[in-house]
Known about the structure:
The complex is a heterodimer.
Chain A: E1 3-7, H1 11-21, E2 26-31, H2 34-44, E3 48-51, H3 60-70, E4 76-80, H4 85-93, E5 98-101, H5 106-116
Chain B: H1 4-21, E1 26-33, E2 42-50, E3 52-60, H2 62-72, H3 78-105, E4 111-113, E5 117-120, E6 133-140, E7 143-153
Antiparallel strand pairs in B: 1-6, 2-3, 2-4, 2-5, 3-7, 6-7
Helix pairs in contact in B: 1-3, 2-3
Amino acid sequence: MKSGLIVDDAAVMRIRLRDILESRYDVVGEAGNGDEALKLYDKFRPDFVTLDITMPQLNGLEALGRLIQIHPDAKVVIVSAVGQKKMVFEAIAKGAKDFIIKPFDPQRVIISIDRLFT
Amino acid sequence: MKAEYANVFIRSAVSVFRQELGVALSRKDITRKNAPVPSLPTCIVIGITGAVRGQVVYSMDSHFAYSVSRAMMPNKLPNDLKKLTNSAVSEIANMITGQASIALAGEDKLIHLTPPAVFSGRNMRLDFLAIPTISLSFISEIGSLEVNIAFTEDKGRQ
């Protein structure tokens, strides 16, 4: 089973994403900001990361840049309410594999993560 | 401040409530204020920078906030829901503001949001900057929601 790390500052969204993903994936950790995400990525080396953008301390785009710099093969899917076109392009340019805009359909999340491994 | 900002937030609020909570939100009033001071005891403040700058201040009563939490997580027990209420209303405010920011940013602008900050309590005092504000009020089966939009457009920034 592939493993995942959920990164979102909102506890309700971490719970929601865990509930969606746990039937097919092993959720090995949850982080509430970018700094914590980088530490947990080093600790668990998950197969994928769901990453929010608007977070305290280190935001998602900054965390994405640092993560890809250190781990170029990291598979990251952005899950954010701030789906502005320029923001989506920036995230993809920095190495995100997909960009899911909140609110989302649970099936959209499953399809996106499944696609990382096919 | 442009009146069309109101339409963007009305569409976003109605859409997010329907999609995320299954709650029909109806617009009640649009008024103007001198600052985004909330009228109801629980408020969520989101700062905005970039192509537009300012604040969005959401307010509601505690029953409404709890109902949002219950609608987001219908399988959780009441004690868990109480603990997660601030997180739930923060996330709903983030989604509404985020969806509005997509429309306001258009093809080539960037708008950044701060993480939401939640304040509650009848005796709290918060000072807000004097920015011309459009105040939207909504009604629904779970109660009333107020959205105060205090923006200044910055044409030189993206």
